[in-house]
Amino acid sequence: MSIALSRKIINCISIVGIIATIAVTIYFMRLGVFKDVNALRGLVGDSVILGPIIFMLIQIIQVVIPIIPGGISCAAGVLIFGPLAGFIYNYVGIAIGSVIIFLLGRQYGKPFILSLVSDKTYNKYIGWLDNEKRFERLFALAIFLPIAPDDALCLMAGLTKMSLRKFTLIIILAKPVSIFLYSLALIYGGTFLNGLLGF
User: Where is the VTT domain positioned along the sequence (predicted)?
Assistant: First the structure.
């Protein structure tokens, strides 16, 4: 499969995912689900084991294949499971997904990365790879703060000589801050939107 075709497929999946996310969000807002935490939790099932597993699998998939915006799923995790458990499930799912795409980038290289990342994003950050030590510092900073496309950088990190151990350590130590900030921003943004639309 050519890069152009695979990129079109991924883009179509992403667009469908975004449209579906918006539609489902509006539907749930009309049902008042966001005002009733118990009803929201019921969406992923009452099982204390199966619900979190399903959610973490969704988070892993959305990192590997951008079906829905990651920030939205982070906020959903906190709303459904509460601040602490939601944060943990987000963290575990996203960390595992990040390691998977790092390994995929390493295994399949530039053609695979370009099927998931736009030329603009690739060209913008490929210069970071010129200096390995500099890349590791910039990569850690980008993961720590939500200032760059994390998933694209995780893929591109696979093109470097960075060890899996070091990559995993950066994700484990730096990822919690950006997950927390995304979740916080979207939860309060969702509350504001809910009040604005009068649902």
Answer: 68-185
